[in-house]
Amino acid sequence: xxxxxxxxxxxxxxxxxxxxxxxxxxxxxxxxxxxxxxxxxxxxxxxxxxxxxxxxxxxxxxxxxxxxxxxxxxxxxxxxxxxxxxxxxxxxxxxxxxxxxxxxxxxxxxxxxxxxxxxxxxxxxxxxxxxxxxxxxxxxxxxxxxxxxxxxxxxx
Length: 156
Prior knowledge:
The protein has 156 residues and is of the alpha+beta class. Helices cover 33% and strands 33% of the residues. The longest helix is centred in the middle third of the chain and has 23 residues, at 57-79.
């Protein structure tokens, strides 16, 4: 194992060890099929089955998968001494056509710009998040196909 890989493993010893293990959320009917969800941190999300006043729960799940992996990956890359000037992710999902209409596949495509970013570091960051740390991804069905691609835009 390279010195850089050993440093990363050492830095990850305490990663996500201080998470709350018991969460509470509240969902209240507002009208028709519109709900307000309040998370344990006090944040609210508006849900609407007809997309007039809020997000659909499946859209929220897809963005949660992407956001969880993005947080992990940016944290890992920064620990690998990458200088990230921009990071964006496009998330696409394919759902089962019949109930239950679970996600059959999720594809994430990342466009990242910065210095000291290479394929090896990106592959490592993807692997760590997908295989070990992304709690949202690991909450999904184990048979869900999940792919991640990326494009590195160099600033050099």
